[in-house]
Amino acid sequence: MEKTEIQALKEFFLHDEFARQNGIxxxxxxxxxxxxxxxxxxxxxxxxxxxxxxxxxxxxDLAFAAATNSHGILTVTSSANITFVRGASSGYITAEAHExxxxxxxxxxxxRVTDEAGNLLGIFTxxxxxxxxxxxxVK
Length: 139
Hints:
This protein is of the alpha+beta class. The protein has helices at residues 3-13, 17-21, 53-68; strands at residues 25-30, 33-39, 73-84, 92-101, 108-115, 120-135. The relative contact order is 0.21.
């Protein structure tokens, strides 16, 4: 991907109001790859003092979206699953997405969610659906 395409895709995702208002940002995008991050604040914690599962899911889903949309065709999540393996309550949390299958219509992606120390917090897998004729990169 060219630098201008990466910037256009990042600008496209600025319209993801839910992620943006929850402090989730795209850190890096490449073809079939993306990394997102959030700094944990008290608003992200559940009643048990750990990060709310919905925060981790949204963080991973945005990474999935950025990775699968990196080809310039609007791709939406058709199914997703997350397995939580460890809790966290502070610091930065990162989701790193790798597109494992770059199918013309049905991509598949794995996203690993980790804390600052590299501890695995969750694994997210998702399938997408590519909408032909709808671009995410405006040149």
